[in-house]
């Protein structure tokens, strides 16, 4: 069963399951293995991950501020990267329409 978890690679998206989010959390740092379980138990999927806060991390039992910082920064980077990719696709679509 653990092998099926490894099939998920990359950053979670809003459609990612709690299991996919768990794998992503665990891959951030070896010491985050226990956090992955907490995320999955709390049914944190990709959509909920987008809205994760320091308070929610505390509620999950993730109290080390350095670990919270790593998780929050990683989440912010995902959605920043997604926004940049989305904007690039929109620009590409505009260029295609103009050239027609």
TrEMBL record:
InterPro entries reported for this sequence: CNKSR, SAM, SAM/pointed_sf
Domain SAM: 16-81
Highest taxon above the source species: Eukaryota
Pfam families: SAM_1 (PF00536)
Listed PANTHER family: CONNECTOR ENCHANCER OF KINASE SUPPRESSOR OF RAS (PTHR12844), CONNECTOR ENHANCER OF KINASE SUPPRESSOR OF RAS 3 (PTHR12844:SF17)
Name recorded for this polypeptide: Connector enhancer of kinase suppressor of ras 3-like
Organism: Camelus ferus
Gene for this chain: LOC116661872
């Amino acid at each position: 069963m653990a092998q099926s978890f490894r099939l998920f690679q990359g950053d979670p998206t809003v459609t990612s399951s709690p299991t996919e989010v768990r794998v992503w959390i665990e891959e951030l740092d070896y010491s985050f293995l226990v956090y992955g379980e907490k995320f999955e138990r709390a049914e944190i999927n990709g959509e909920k991950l987008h809205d994760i806060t320091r308070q929610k991390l505390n509620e999950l039992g993730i109290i080390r501020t350095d670990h919270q910082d790593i998780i929050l920064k990683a989440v912010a980077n995902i959605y920043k990267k997604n926004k940049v990719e989305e904007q690039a696709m929109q620009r590409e679509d505009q260029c295609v329409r103009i050239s027609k």
